[in-house]
Design brief:
It comes from Pontibacter rugosus. Strands 1, 2, 3, 4, 5 and 6 form a six-stranded mixed β-sheet that branches. A hairpin with a 4-residue loop joins strand 3 and strand 4. It contains ten helices and six strands; from the N terminus they run H-H-H-H-H-E-E-E-E-H-E-H-E-H-H-H. By secondary structure, the protein is an alpha/beta fold. The protein has two domains: about 100 residues, no CATH class; about 140 residues, no CATH class. The longest helix has 21 residues.
Length: about 270
Amino acid sequence: MTEQTIAIYCFIDDFFLAIGRKDDAHCKLSDAELLTTALVAARFFYGNLHSACAYMREHHGVRMIDKSGFTRRLHGLKEQLVALFLALGQSLKQLNTRSRYLIDSFPVAVCDNIRIARCRLLRGEGYRGKCVSKRCYFYGFRVQLIATEEGLPVQFYIHAGSFVDITAFKAMELDLPEGSRLYADAGYTCYEVEDLLKECDGVELRACRKRNSKRADQPHMAFLKDHYRKRIETTFSGITALFPKKIHAVTPQGFILKIILFIFAYTLSQIIE
């Protein structure tokens, strides 16, 4: 735990030094220490910031600030947090010489279905979605995740739960190297999108075909698609294992921020370990 905490801090601090970001001279808690604490909370304490702050203060001598100030600064560093993840993702893409990537989505429920009418965090039917694999409905967000062949996340897109995979994929700003092959399930089937990606970006979307598909696969291609896309399910299991029984947040932005922290913390843990 100590080694991972130090590694996370060094990565964040080096990134801030590389981009020339400097802390305010009057800040008691640096930005690198703050983001490290948030990621440690997601990695080891199920997102509990209070426990992570206590750990960092007692075991690493970090001078903590009050809870409200910590939360405000964390929200203010959301762009830097996403930039850190994208920078790490670019490095992973460069190391992924086979250029095989996986895409799929997983739901993150805000509350149980029976409590939707009393939910204060979100309002509207736009957040009610269906999880086909589990044959159930949920109320909250859906995360589109792109991972390497080894299951390391490199890009994500969080959206309302009612949007199906292919609709969200069209809205997603895909950033993959030319010549990449992106494996997906049948929910991402759209011949127009496949043709545009291949022609404009040089990315081949290999979605599993339905029985009535107009572009049926040869048996060997169907086997490859089914084989590679299953690896991302293990990634989803690893990310959701970090979740608490209920993700505590006061605003939708805070809820999304915690999802980002869980995805980032999982990626760092896989790299460090």
